[in-house]
Amino acid sequence: MIRIEPRLSPSKIMVYGAPLLAVGLTLVAGALLFGALGYSPTKSMYLFFIAPISDSYGLTELFLKATPLTLCAVGLAVGFRGNVWNIGAEGQLTMGAIAAGAIAVTWHDSTSFLLLPIMMIAGVLGGLAWAAIPALLKTRFHANEILTSLMLTYVASLFLGYLVNGPLRNPEGFNFPESRMFGDAGLMPLLVEGSRLHIGALIALFIVLLAWLIMSRTLIGFQIKVVGLTPLAAHYAGFSPKKIIWMSLLLGGGLAGLAGMFEVAGPIGQLQPVISPGYGFTAIIVAFLGRLHPVGILCAALLVALSYLGGETVQMELSLPLAVTGVFQGMLLFFLLACDVLINFRFVLGSKRKAVP
Predict the structure, then answer these.
(1) CA dist 1 to 4, 261, 312, 344, Å?
(2) What are the pLDDT digits (tens) for 310-341?
């Protein structure tokens, strides 16, 4: 007989082993799923996980898609460590894209080298301002930041739709809901010629390093951890929960806004009704798969970015719907949550011992 019993202390091995186990179970479940659909599991898994990165262009696409995931997940992870649950990174990404795109469209004929830095600042401020709304509602009215940040995502999406169908619509675009194409000065410089990979990937790497230094080597990083783990101890130490709420949400919003700017000034090159395939929501999975550690998040972002590429590949090769990407990401989250149980509990064989009178 198998039973579950609590551990005397959390398992340090399973803290980092659970994500690896979840990935393994996802691979097994994915192979079984393809088999149940009538496809060769071996060929299907090859197309999903190997074929997309079998050449240099595929590798650059992997890093390209991992960039916004990394930026959003790092910002979310800081808040999650402080017990601040920002679920609205998708909306903050959208508002950052809108702010940066509005500048690029307004000065579409500019050749100034200052245009791109201004767009980056605008993107950060756009996401930051959108994140400030749930921060204000949380600290002033004790509103749940999960609900407010999530609902604001749909407001941002509708606002984007209004702009590309109205004030920012391309007057020469035959009434298609999109803005002008950005000028060369408003596009991110490429890292690899012949690809879409831009310098935003290097900026994301720098932010990963900076986040690690902040969380592990500064007082504010220590305060975030204490507030998240032991709020009562943080209160006696004089740490301000409101300060942590504001800082966490603004940081998450700013990084998500920067990710939105990278998308519109990078692979898209204009404002469209849809900016991201859900990077802001998927970043939640990335953050927890990476154990809320910046380096772990970087590795998790690469894995999840591969699921986007794999979904596109099997769509073309096997005529499967693109929703297969969401299926794999959902399975990964499900198995991660299930495996996390093993951190505090363990499976034991045999019946429970009877107490001796």
Answers:
(1) 10, 55, 44, 20
(2) 999 999 999 999 899 999 999 999 999 999 99
